[in-house]
Amino acid sequence: MVVMDNLVTILFIVNILLSIIIIFRERRQTAQTWAWLLVLMFIPIVGFVLYFFFGRGISKEKIFDMRSQAKIGLNVELEEQKQALSRHLFPHPPTAQVEVQQLVYLLTVFGQSLYTTANSMTLYTDGRQKFDALIADIEQAKNHIHMEYYIYRSDALGNEVKEALVRAAKRGVKVRVLLDAWGSTQVSLKFFDELRLHGGQIAFFFPLFVPYVNPRINYRNHRKIVVIDGEIGYTGGFNVGDEYLGQVEKFGYWRDNHLRIAGSAVYSLQNRFLMDWNSQHALEIKYDPALFPEIKQTGTVAAQVITSGPDTEHEEIKMTYLKMINLAKKEILIQTPYYIPDEAIHNALKLALLSGVKVHIQIPNKPDHPLVYWATYSFAAELLRFGAIIETYEKGFMHAKTMIIDSGLVSIGSANIDVRSFRLDFEVNTIIYDAQLATKTKEAFLADSIDSKPLTIEAYQQRKLTIKIKEGLARLVSPLL
């Protein structure tokens, strides 16, 4: 008995020491550190397994060779813009107030994001309209199609898109498709056999060599990018699957935002795809002028494409959101399926409210991931005490990732307002400096408000005990979500 007690004590001490060594060898947020310490200490064996798959940091040595920017020729213009900004010279004629130029500076110098003008953009809020436009552009492709999605399903929509890609490949168009291995577990290489037969190439991001087993499983490529002939780009929140057309009963109508871009901002999407592809595929794409054709002026929209991921030292998209919030003078409109902010974002919104800025947030009324949903509900409701307007979208499922600041600044992309998007997933957002597109995006937001139900302090305080328990548990583990 004494021997057993001593053995348990020794194992407990060893477990604590190992926990401390494992956790503190990597720089991470304090809340995450404490959460993992609790998991490792109170459920030792299971906790270590969970940490192996979900807690380990990714190598800070770049997964993506940033030198590839030099190969594709974007580094020259980016460096010119950095130098101009350091001398307080705006790279192009100002399109917005001086304060917004601070954001341009941040994204150019800190985020390595090219500032582009003369873009034309179309906002899609309906899945069918978005995919009809995408397939129409695929049918017109002449040189190449680059497609990158988190989720691609082998259902009706997946087949529809695949058949369009096959037709393009038969015409001699170079087709490359990069899918996240975890998000696209329902689709296999066999599904793309005909496309591959005609020269199409398929790659999986962080592939699962053993089904559902991968020590990097917690780090996913959440980006949605399509580039056609280097001239047209698509990016936003829609993945490829029938649910994104509102054809899955569980979710009903799927509300999302997606952009069709024509103009020099497509260069940034192309650059991102090439780096992602080259990081995962043996057949590296070399520089080819056809990938970056000369683009004629097609519009007047100024924009920057910003990306982030766990391979970088900084949380670029989180910093972008934070700067946008701090720039607001009148209103902040947010749509997000998951609102699990870190302290900086949460406090920035509170400060905005206390400073007289209107904060209006729309979240789903139904969960696709229960723990995430109840954490979202709890964090969003906390802002009610500061005067925020919180609405739950009742028409279907709210999946849009949108931030509108005042009347001329918009972010649309793949990144949610949560810890996962900030630190764990590879994301892409488009920051738009344009009053007209901001107005269109706001009009869509206000239309969604008609289909939403306001959450009041009175109703929230009367929630059931079971809901309070769910919220408490969800918030406890929120640093790990």
UniProtKB/TrEMBL annotation:
Parts of the chain that traverse the membrane: 6-24, 36-54
PLD phosphodiesterase domain ranges (all copies): 217-244, 394-421
Catalytic-site annotation from UniProt: 222, 224, 229, 399, 401, 406
Subcellular location field: Cell membrane
Major site of localization recorded for this protein: membrane
Keywords: Cell membrane, Lipid biosynthesis, Lipid metabolism, Membrane, Phospholipid biosynthesis, Phospholipid metabolism, Repeat, Transferase, Transmembrane, Transmembrane helix
A matching Pfam family: PLDc_N
Top-level taxon: Bacteria
SMART domains reported for this sequence: PLDc
Gene3D superfamilies: Endonuclease Chain A (3.30.870.10)
Enzyme Commission number(s) from the entry: 2.7.8.-
Keyword Cell membrane: yes
Entry membrane topology: Multi-pass membrane protein
Recorded catalytic activity of this chain's protein: 2 a 1,2-diacyl-sn-glycero-3-phospho-(1'-sn-glycerol) = a cardiolipin + glycerol
Family of this protein: Belongs to the phospholipase D family. Cardiolipin synthase subfamily.
The protein's role, per its UniProt record: Catalyzes the reversible phosphatidyl group transfer from one phosphatidylglycerol molecule to another to form cardiolipin (CL) (diphosphatidylglycerol) and glycerol.
Protein name as catalogued: Cardiolipin synthase
Source organism: Enterococcus innesii
